[in-house]
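Contributing new complexes? Match this layout with flavin-adenine dinucleotide.
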Amino acid sequence: MRFQSATHRPDLLSQLSERNFDLLVIGGGATGAGIALDAASRGMAVALVEKKDFAFGTSSRSTKLIHGGLRYLKQLEIKLVHEVGSERATVHRLAPHLVVSEPMLLPLVKGGTYGKWATAFGLWVYDLLAGVSGKDRRVMLGKSHTLEKEPLLREDILLGSGRYAEYRTDDARLTLENIKAAIQHGALVANYVEATGFHYGENQKITGVTAHDTLGGKSLDIRAKLVINAAGPWVDELRQKNQSMNQKRLFLTKGVHIVFPKERFPLRQSIYFDVPDGRMIFAIPRGKVTYVGTTDTEYKADKDRPLTYLDDVTYLIDASNRLFPSIKLRVEDVVSSWAGLRPLIFEEGKSASEISRKDEIFLSDTGLISIAGGKLTGYRKMAEKVVDVAAKHIQAHSNQRFTSCLTKKIPLGGLAFDRGAVSVDAYRDQLREELSAVGLEAYQAWYLVHLYGRQSDQILDYFRQGKDLSERGLILAELAYGLEEEMVHTLTDFFVRRTGRLYFDIESVRTYAEEVAAAMADHFGWSESRISFELQSLHQEMEDVSVFRPNPEAVSVM
Ligand code: FAD
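Output block (do not edit by hand):
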């Protein structure tokens, strides 16, 4: 049975309630997905449930960078810089189409936080500690060379820049590729299944959960020797249900990114720059857009629907206009946005930006293992750490034996690219040729390859089989692939988490929403009322990301 197909959901749900698992993972973000893959590949019987769609939480709302740990250098966390740097190289090797080198410019400006020598030395130490090599090594540039790289920079205060390597990714796709690899290694994985309570056996130890199928409305029980709570910003809700809150708790902060069409903000080069309040933000060109972020403010409202408010937008626009004065950005220029919640671990007396991004594991007396904090960048290492704990526990109480962590060797996103980025580029050129032969722009090949890797071949098979060799045909082919291979159940699954179109090509969502809804209705046999519900939900999401209300919590100063 191919459980990655949306059609097989009824069988998937009955298997979930019939089998006995070694491990049940709650939460289908990057952390949970990484854990499921790690545990399944070691030989554990694994289940994972996600209450909404995979990557619905923070893992579709990050800055979408796989960092090298530069910020840890500032805090003198030397070991961490080394660890994060080598981890980035590993994730790039596993998915070179999805974790792609993105040279970053650090402008040096009059009155800025760092001078030329401090930056040059800092980036040099960073390269050394993080094991950065080849063309990723830092380069210091003078003023004119910096302006050649990015002519939009403010000339009168510019002194030069440091250029170093970041890696860009698509967080939701990275999560999904881990989910798919976990399924290939035997894990049973379901989106739209919410863990609502725990079952306890002897000595009040957890033996499983009660769950709710939020699409079909039924309840189910899932049995497991161990349960891992990887619910990101919702980790404490589950700890509360398990009555295992101790002195450690989460502290949520909201981070917003805003998106401009390329024509309105024609940035050539990614920039990481100072803001007057002492923070730093990114401006990153990507395909048809440029995005800017992020903010960092304490958050206490609805975790399921963090919104971008007008004050978030003006903060980011003011910062951008200060460094790129010629473009004169306005609120009306913002075409999309996203707001995510950082599940940080509370530290007394520290502000949002000062709190450490380290991950932590909490063990409860009932056996619940909760993992919180951390970064997308470290998801694989976090998974290794927590699965080591789980394996040790299960082995101590049974005669089962598991291998050690194998995920360093499991490529993500279908067939591997044996020569890394070089093979990715060659494959993209090949697709560009094929698509340009039917009149499609080069962007489409870039888009497909960097989201799907070699799985693009399967999408192109659907495309060729369809009679429509236009952008519309390509989008319907992408949908067919999503329905068969990626558990797409709703319109927003497709337009937000599988394809990122809501953020990076919102025009295509407007153009094709109705046709995609019609194709999904055909596939699932949806009623008229379900179709209008789906379209309404999508329109709500489109409004949420592009219409900016005043912040209801802002203190108005008269
Ligand atoms: P989530 O992605 O939130 O996943 C938790 C999941 O659990 C959710 O999908 C939720 O629906 C599900 N869930 C909750 N309760 C239940 C339940 N009862 N039953 C079933 N499922 C449940 N890191 C980087 O490395 N690089 C970056 O560039 C970067 N930028 C960031 C920018 C911002 C603005 C933010 C907010 C974070 C950023 N991070 C970045 C951090 C990174 O995004 C997070 O560390 C990571 O995505 C957290 O993943 P997670 O799986 O722990 O949480």
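Reviewers usually confirm one structural detail per submission. For this one: Residues 26-32, 49-52, 56-59, 61-65, 67, 194-195, 230-234, 238, 255, 294, 340-342, 374-377 surround flavin-adenine dinucleotide (CB under 6 Å).
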